Write a sequence for this structure.
């Protein structure tokens, strides 16, 4: 990884900086901050754990102004550690929580430093009793970094979760703000989720919620699941989050969140995922790189409340792009990686073809709102420049309580898939004349193996504004594939919204492909 800050790290640095400006604490102070700063007696060492207590703690915090975190207790130099030195600080394997107990999971508390300077309190729940995870510098290998002086309690910056009895492997991590990530078996880490996102992409500035503390239930090997409770806080809102992690060929995380609004919130996002799209055949921007494509997410997939399946490829735009896909009670949405051919990337280090898709299956009534897509111009592949989340239409009123639940799948492909052909690849380039642009979209699926069905297929293509020209279809039933080529003439307009679906008769045989072209 580059030593320069990517967007994820910049957000963390900004959040830490805001806390430092808001609170002045003595540099020598070594007292715990995090949850302990609020003296939540019912959620501390030796107390009986009840998930309702986390809800009550979040409700209680919402009645008071935000007490910012502070990073002034970090040892000198730790906040400025280069990434390679910080990443060399690791817990001794034998010191991991539940190491050697064959419980199916172990937890590695993560040291603070670099841009991850904010403190997080960790607790375990064993036999219904709360046990605080205390910081002990002797349990860490510091590599090239001088160990911290003294025996102060620095707490942690988050945790890394490993699974497996005989050969444990990292399956998830929680570190910084409300960021977390996971993988399915055989994958490499890629996209990142956020438990809550507030005002992204707005001129008034993004608000950064963060986790103050986690309570981790000791796992039962028979259930193959890990339950984590988190206490979330920010200037405008607090929350209690319960996550149930079930790793495997698809890694599921069931997320149950209850928010308590300190202030009115007109722009809040649930089910947020972030990923990288730097360059590829669907993007007009090109970079001088030996690799033909550089991206870990290819697009946004949605299943609307009406049941319609929609796919929207993403790009690295020349200017910030924000798209809203209005819906009512969506059934699911996510950032997906559809390209699984290593030859598309030719990158033996990054292995973008092994990055996870992140699918959100909504649970319960989510009401009216929109899937929001933010595409941020980027000159570095280190940036998470693609952001997707659900934005409810109804603002959160001050003093309100809001609950939303979803099942998150970190996967090779979403567990719920349409019985339709899907768009697998797209290319665009100069058209035949003037400002025309030429597109080729490739669809694949079992339906396209039916020669009779394919013979009757037609492509329904629209653009707003502009006109569609020169539509052509190339069917390949023996390969279960169909290519559609067309041109758009935008006239003098700088932007066109495109829509394409394959029909047989009046019935769709493909998902709906959407795209935004910008000059």
């Amino acid at each position: 990884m580059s030593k320069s800050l990517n967007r994820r790290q910049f957000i963390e640095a900004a959040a830490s900086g805001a806390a430092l400006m808001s609170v002045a604490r003595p540099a020598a102070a070594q007292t715990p901050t995090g949850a302990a700063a609020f003296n939540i007696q019912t959620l501390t060492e030796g107390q009986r754990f009840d998930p309702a207590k986390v809800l009550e703690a979040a409700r209680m915090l919402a009645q008071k102004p935000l007490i910012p975190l502070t990073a002034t207790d970090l040892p000198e130099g730790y906040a400025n550690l280069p990434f390679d030195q910080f990443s060399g600080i690791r817990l001794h394997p034998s010191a991991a929580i539940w190491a050697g107990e064959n419980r199916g999971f172990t937890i590695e508390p993560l040291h603070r430093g670099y841009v991850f300077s904010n403190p997080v309190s960790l607790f375990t729940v064993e036999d219904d009793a709360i046990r605080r995870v205390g910081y002990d510098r002797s349990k860490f290998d510091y590599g090239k970094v001088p160990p911290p002086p003294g025996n102060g309690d620095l707490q942690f910056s988050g945790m890394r979760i490993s699974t497996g009895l005989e050969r444990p492997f990292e399956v998830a991590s929680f570190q910084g703000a409300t960021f977390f990530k996971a993988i399915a078996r055989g994958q490499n880490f890629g996209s990142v989720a956020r438990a809550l996102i507030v005002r992204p992409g707005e001129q008034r500035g993004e608000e950064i919620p963060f986790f103050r503390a986690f309570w981790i239930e000791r796992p039962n090997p028979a259930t193959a699941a890990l339950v984590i409770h988190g206490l979330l806080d920010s200037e405008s809102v607090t929350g209690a989050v319960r996550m149930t992690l079930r790793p495997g060929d698809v890694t599921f995380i069931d997320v149950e969140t209850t928010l308590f609004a300190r202030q009115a919130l007109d722009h809040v996002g649930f089910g947020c995922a972030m990923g990288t799209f730097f360059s590829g055949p669907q993007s007009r921007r090109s970079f001088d790189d030996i690799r033909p494509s550089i991206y870990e997410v290819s697009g946004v997939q949605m299943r609307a409340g009406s049941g319609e399946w929609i796919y929207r490829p993403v790009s690295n735009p020349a200017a910030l792009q924000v798209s809203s896909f209005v819906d009512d009670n969506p059934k699911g949405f996510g950032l997906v990686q559809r390209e699984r051919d290593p030859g598309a990337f030719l990158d033996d280090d990054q292995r973008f073809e092994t990055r996870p898709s992140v699918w959100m299956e909504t649970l319960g009534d989510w009401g009216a709102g929109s899937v929001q897509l933010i595409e941020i111009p980027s000159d570095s592949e280190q940036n998470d420049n693609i952001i997707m989340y659900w934005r409810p239409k109804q603002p959160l009123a001050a003093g309100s309580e809001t609950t939303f639940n979803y099942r998150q799948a970190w996967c090779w492909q979403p567990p719920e898939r349409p019985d339709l052909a899907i768009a697998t690849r797209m290319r665009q380039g100069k058209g035949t004349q003037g400002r025309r642009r030429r597109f080729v979209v490739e669809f694949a699926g079992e339906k396209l193996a039916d020669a009779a069905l394919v013979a009757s297929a037609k492509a329904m293509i629209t653009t707003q504004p502009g006109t569609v020209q020169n539509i052509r279809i190339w069917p390949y039933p023996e390969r279960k594939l169909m290519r559609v080529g067309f041109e758009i003439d935008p006239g003098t307009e700088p932007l066109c919204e495109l829509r394409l679906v394959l029909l047989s008769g009046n019935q769709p045989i493909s998902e709906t492909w959407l795209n935004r072209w910008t000059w």
